[in-house]
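Provenance

Sequences were taken from public entries as deposited. Structures were produced by running a predictor on each sequence independently, with no templates supplied. The record for Phospholipid-transporting ATPase from Athene cunicularia is shown for reference.
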Amino acid sequence: MADPIQWARYRWQRLISTEGGEGSSSSSSSNKCYQSSKTSGKHRIVIPCLGHFKEEYEKVSKLYMNNKIRTTKYTLLNFLPRNLFEQFHRVANLYFLFLVVLNWVPLVEAFQKEITMLPLIAVLTIIAVKDGLEDYSKYKMDKRINNLLTKVYSRKEKKYIDECWKNVNVGDFIRLSRNEIIPADMVLLYSSDPDGICYIETAGLDGETNLKQRQVVRGYSEQVSEIDPEKFSSRIECESPNNDLTRFRGFVEHSNKDRVGLSKENLLLRGCTVRNTEAVVGIVVYAGHETKAMLNNSGPHYKRSKLERKVNTDILWCVLLLILMCLTGAIGHGIWLSRYSEIPFFNIPEPDGKLISPTLAGFNMFWTMIILLQVLIPVSLYVSIEIVKLGQIYLIQNDIDFYHEKTDSTVQCRALNIAEDLGQIQYIFSDKTGTLTENKMVFRRCSIAGQEYCHEENAKRLESYQEVNSEDEDSADRQCGSSTHMSEWHGHNCSAVNEPLNRKSLHQLSGSYPAPGREDRAGDVPHSGHFAFSSPIETDVVPDTQLLEKFNQISSHSCQQSEEASSNLSLETMYITDFFLALAICNTVVVSVPNQPRKKVRRLSSLGRTPIKSLEEIRQMFQRFSVWRLSSSPLPSVKESSSESPSSFVSKLSIFRMKLASPALDGAVQGAAEPLNTDSPENSPVPQELDIVNAASPDEAALVHAARAYKCILQSRTPDQVTVDFAGLGSLTFQLLHILPFDSVRKRMSVVVRHPVSNSVVVYTKGADSVMMDLLRTASEEMEQKKIKERTQKHLDDYARRGLRTLCVAKKVLSDAEYAEWLNHHFLAETSIDNREVLLLESAIRLETELTLLGATGIEDRLQEGVPDTIQALRKAGIKIWMLTGDKRETAVNIAYACKLLEPDDRIFTLKSQSRDACALVMSKILEGIQKNTSAKKKPSQKLGNVFASPSTQAPGFSAGLVIDGRTLEHVLHDSLQNIFLELTEKCRAVVCCRATPLQKSVLVRLVRNKLKAMTLAVGDGANDVSMIQVADTGVGISGQEGMQAVMASDFAISQFRHLRKLLLVHGHWCYTRLTNMVLYFFYKNVAYVNLLFWYQFFCGFSGTSMTDYWILILFNLLFTSVPPIIYGVLDKDVPAEILMQLPQLYMMSQKSVAYLPSTFWMTLLDAFYQSLVCFFVPYFTYYGSDIDIFSFGNPINTAALFIILFHLLIECKSVVSTLFSEGILFYFVFTLAFGATFKTRNQPSNSYWIMEKHMTDPVFYLVCILTTCVALLPRCVSVL
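Predicted structure for Phospholipid-transporting ATPase:
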């Protein structure tokens, strides 16, 4: 028979040519051409600048960008204007710019023009320098990247030449070697790998270090030599540039109008690195800023924190206060002028001789007061907040407790401006797998053909297992409850449905079948910890004795069985064989053997020298074996052997094995197909070198390792074929026709293969039981399948109750006609650009029907260290925790109990309904039940109160938990049911959402955030958690085993869930408390100081005069009192970390914003008014009636104000060293002494010359300063004590 790949290509070409050749299809062909030209604006046409494409290339290339990138924001010419333009987007900067301009108006001038500009210039300069340095570092990086060299084909020199990245254009041919970085997005046209595979590392994009496979476009992979760009006559049509890294749609159209579909598997992305491949050639489709990597480069995360929104509101209150004070000054100045019956001597007339009326003078004085009292608006507050946040982030990232030695990682703070939000979290939405659990999948149980295999020996191994170099971590796991599930299985006897045949002793079986590769682990194999999903606890699987005995009967003992005895084994053997074949090949796992060169394995290479006669016999036997009772549409070849009895299977299997083991065969073939000798390890089919399993998920790796334990070993995988060494039968090479990957809609994956012996098309499918059970055959005559389905469902429910992750395994056999019909639709879906995902989904659903159930698996995922303690602590802190998972209900509930999200005393309500009305009715009944229990429990405990009471509305003696599945979520998320659903969840201490899709997770987070106005935190570790992480107020990613997508999208990244405890309870509390106290302190000191000027206006006719020199007035807030609050905001610790960890209830203080309530803000302003009154009137009454000048009167007021403001902060501090505050006082005295000694005639008629020097020798000055400070701070000291 012809090669299946050739046959498939022939079918595709025939289908396309038929459409183009028939008259009835001519119109459709023209429609296709019209549609292509019509949608060319949406799509991108890529052609090389070679040959007959040259003229067309000149037109098309003008529309596309080159490969030069520029991530900088500024240039030398536009830096100053653009930076100023961006800075003046801030309202505070615009406000102070307005004051600077206002001070240049002579009628309202309050200060010297240069002094008014000083604060604004200082702030703008600091930010400009920071922005300039950041942009310059980007410029240097851009320059280095743009000047990197790569090999580009030159049409002039007819060869590949070195060219800078910036000179690469769309349509250029690029040649890359091993370890080179890909300069632009390119379609792979050639690979030196014999199977057309290119290995790339995508760490630059998503942080994942495991290698990914990309393959050459179909039709180019079989070329022997490297592609010649001059002979390339095809054109590429693909989608317009977008930032979706997981999707690429397009097709290659050859000169004969044949089309070949393109997918992400054919695309090499910019920034990735070529690994393990000597040479690749591709054509550029996206360059520069149109590449997917650049379109995803959105810069740092920016979210506005809740505190920042409050600060903006309070600044508006300060603006209103400023306007009120200025109105008071304007009205007072007008009244004061109107009291003079005669023209006062100081009222100088205008040049035309007219006098300014009191009303106009009061209006002018309003603007003068605005300039004088401008300090009331804290211009330095925004800069100080940014500095404090950077300091807090630095301390978090350098906390040694966040370091995880096993992964060599620590906390990452990716969002720099929401650290204080960590102290206000009210809801946590957590994923389960990889977040609460380790994501180390351990194969525990399986059910095949309705019979369960408990793997008791494997359970005993796991109970006593301690991973190498991690004894402490495993012991902590057991203390935290991760071994809770293990204890449930200890000593559990599995009641098999059918008794095992010819049972051997446990000693003989366990001695003959150690875990594969365990003996050879100490060889030249790299340490398994260097590879994902390859720890010994995952790879070492001890086979079940009963199932292993049946494998012995299949492989070695079957040749000694009589036909009568073997008849009982045929049906069960069929299921067992297909079950483990599905585990081995229904995945995307790639295996590689260290120190072994790659060779292309041809189809049926291991049977190459088998006599043709025996091969035909084997084909007939496998056709009977594969189709009997498994296919509703048997192939014609099966009818020829329909007279065979099932009992002949074992005897033919032994013939097959004897033929393969014949001495006449080649040595390599003989070694691969030699019968398994249980007493001789040398004859084991397991390679002497441990194969390295590269899996995309731990579930796939666990199933492959389980199949390996039963000598069903995945040997190699290429884009065209999969080779499996099955139980001593030799290497079976399956032609890999299609892979239908897993998605969240179908919740399953399938592989379509052509069987190496029967030559039939077989579909192997694995997926969630919630969808797989509905896809099984429902024919009335399939009584055996019904029994298997019922028994398997019972086993699945039992696995879920034990907290295991469950998967169903099924198969389907297709006839050639059925496959050709499906292939026609699938090919059209593959080659389409618009709605490609929808068409592929429909194609997969069309294929995955009428399946035959083979069995099910149960995989354990252990809890991470410290998860139960962390959840208990977070709940004591008043945080509600929701578990959002895609697992089934029983598994999710079991894990919820294990991690103490649900307690044994909790009353669990399950919300599951098929319609919206039924869902509303069920929720109403649950609410009634909770309210009855709440009212009953509250009566005897009404007198019991607690300051740190939980925000939940539950009674002290009653607690409820809510469990809801994905289908019901669709109903409750409807607008009409959202309010009652949220009311119900508020009365529950925990919510578990199972079978939830990524979209439902994000909708739930958004619903709670918007409707309840609650601070939310979402934590997850996988790509399916990205949407909810981005929606939440704070997103936390866990750098687990599922890549770095969640980390890349998060605001904070941690390595273990237990780190969330200290991140919130300690650093969250500190960050919020420090920042709120610092912000309140800024408002306090500005109001207190500016009021001194305001009180003085009552004694100077509201003339806008200051009793302090303008330089000292401006620098008071800018220099003298700016550093201590920043130090306080970064380093102060109101409560030690140990106490915060031991008493999680203290977190409620920051959670409820106790430190920054509206009442706290106004009390702070009242305190500032009181202290300013004391600070002004104590010196006033002291010097009342004396002849001191204005600056001699203002100097003790200014000095006392400095003491009061700094000592006020010292009282508030709990841990910062007091010597830091002495520097502000020292700097003030040094400056005023130098200023008074230098500026001899600074201001006229008053003069600040030698003022401080005189007061330093006056005892009254010291007495005034000390007395004023004590009286002003007395209430604050009393309140603290």
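The CA atoms of residues 100 and 715 lie 77 Å apart.
The first helix runs from residue 4 to 21.
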